Amino acid sequence: MKTSVVNMINQQINKEFYSAYLYLEFSNFLILKGLTGFAHWFRIQAMEERDHALLFYDYLHHNNKTVVLAEIAKPDAKLESVMDVLKEALKHEEYITASINDIYAEALKEKDFRTTQFLDWFVKEQGEEEANVQALIDKVQLLGDNMQGTYILNTELLTRVYAPPTLIVG
């Protein structure tokens, strides 16, 4: 692996851990709003992001490369509503998608095909992440000020179950 790819993956580890922090911050905000279902959904998102960081971590170790852990920034999102949370989440997922795409492009440039194969899972995963957040935005927009509908959606989100990633690091 070229140093440029290793450096970018180390940066991605930090971005994924930051994502977990950000989603825990969203969960905190939503708990305070009494929306425990939305909070639960973002807590599971935080767990997924943590696991994504660990997949990158394991990948570097599996390839005999050094993992460099950096300071994780404190989330600073300004939130006032559920829609603020969802829009910030979508913006963040788009940022993570672009970051993974950049690593992919660098790996291709360096003819690091093992890394591109590893990243294929993340490319697909990011498509799902963006679609899931967009679906929540669409539902909340559809509900508008309908408190009964929001209550039902909040209850539905409580049923989300955590499923660890099945990617094999190699």
Topology record:
Layout lengths: L2 H30 L3 H27 L19 H28 L3 H31 L3 H11 L13
Helix pairs in contact: 1-2, 1-3, 2-5, 3-4
What can you tell me about this protein's structure?
With 170 residues, the protein is mostly helical. The protein has a single domain (3-157), classed as Ferritin, core subunit, four-helix bundle (Ferritin). Helix content is 75%, strand content 0%. α2 runs parallel beside α5 (147-157) and α3 runs antiparallel to α4. The chain starts with a helix and ends in a 13-residue tail after the last helix.
Supply the number of helical segments. Answer: 5
Helix proportion range:
over 70%
Rg is 17 Å
Provide the domain count.
1
The name of the CATH superfamily reads: Ferritin, core subunit, four-helix bundle
Low-confidence stretches: none
The gross shape turns out to be: elongated
Overall mean pLDDT? 95
Largest sheet: none
Q: What would you call the structural class?
A: mainly alpha
CATH topology: Ferritin
The amount of beta strand, in percent, is under 5%
- The sequence of SSEs as H and E is HHHHH
Q: How many strand elements? A: 0
Whole-Å distance between the termini? 13 Å
CATH class: Mainly Alpha
CATH architecture: Up-down Bundle
What's a concise summary of this model?
This protein is mostly helical.
Please supply descriptive tags for the structure shown above.
mainly alpha; Ferritin; 0% strand; elongated
